[in-house]
Amino acid sequence: MSFIADKQTLDDLSLLGKFNPGSVFSIFNKVKTRGAEKLLDAMFLHPLSDVEAINNRSAIFLYFNDHPTGFPFDDKQLERMESYLDEGGDGSYLLALWELSRKKIAALLVRDDTYELALTGIDSSIAILEACEQLLRQLEKEGRDKDQPWKKWSDIVRTIITDVRYKQLNSSSRSLLDNVRLHHMLTGTFRGQLKMLLELIYETDLYIAVAGVARAKGFSYAQALPKDRNKLEAKGLRHPGLDKGVANSLFFNTATNVLFLTGANMAGKSTLMKSTGILLYLAHMGFPVAATDVQFSLLDGIYSSVNVPDDLNKGYSHFYAEVLRVKKVAEEVATGKSLFIIFDELFKGTNVKDAYDATLAVTEAFTNFTNCFFIISTHIFEVGHALNNGGSQISFEFLPTIMQNNVPQYTYKLQKGITTDRQGMIIIENEGILNML
């Protein structure tokens, strides 16, 4: 079963978006090749759902984190090599001879450029193999060529560059027959291995880039645990887009599966909730996370309700859209899935009395689903007092506000308990709105 995160959740957490500089994708998109960018996009779209696969990928990123490596390949040459190999051949020398001879004749007679394109493909492939050979020698010198992230790549490179035919033909001046033999080798004999080599080069580009981001930003690598451990422990958690973000720690398990979060506007509730959702999504990808230490049990998915829009076409008000979102989550939770749920300001689209009653009822109901974890934030702190009956199922924490000369200051640091902070009118008065009116 694949990891669940619907469009609403992906949008709430700003996870995707190649052209969105504020997306989590953009934070990690420091790759040098289009092939690696496509691979990065695929990884973001398909988080992993297997503990071993997650931890194995994390281990590869950690390897490149601890062993910084330059990327010695040219993107344009890689693209030309890929296009050349995609055009392919059937492995027959006679057909390779016919194909290249025909293209050369066409080039002489009608100035057709297909022969030059074929030569460009051959030259680009050789240039990439030469770069591979140089990198391999460096890795051999360092004793790292047999390390797990490199072994498959180095085995393929050795097979090709030590082949007698390749060594004989790889020269600066080549005849038509030399080009035919090289064409036959590259698009026939070694085509499958070369295509695999390209994939491994793109993977390496991605590993180097992501590990570089993690090293620069001080990210760490989460440890995935089996689902039945039912645990999330995150220390030093912050938003990956904030280099100087204030760190917090969170803990969930079967006995305490709901975090009831209070705090004034701008105190940092939404950022904390998004940070947690992003952390879990990246952790299920096997990617580095913005925290100092993380252990998490495998989940089936994440659902969030942060920026729920109304729907003018369907005639849905903001409140009704919120209700439908809660219904969707309740249906998923009731199926027995292990999910992480984020509700930011439940039922803010209705009056305070209905919002109080609904938030109280929904939060109480969610405590029964101990295989799921919930963060529920609200301004209606009275709900917290009604829920706080001495049990351990709900953890009550808040983000405080400190008043200095009638100006609110925020620590962004979690504290135990329930806050009654409400500074909305103070902010309105400080902005001079009432005086304008």
UniProtKB/TrEMBL annotation:
Keywords: ATP-binding, DNA-binding, Nucleotide-binding
Listed InterPro entries: DNA_mismatch_repair_MutS_C, DNA_mismatch_repair_MutS_sf, MutS, P-loop_NTPase
Source domain of life: Bacteria
Protein name, per record: DNA mismatch repair protein
Pfam family, one: MutS_V
TM ranges: none
One annotated GO molecular function: ATP binding
Single GO biological process annotation from the record: mismatch repair
Natural source organism: Chitinophaga agri
Nucleotide-binding recorded as keyword: yes
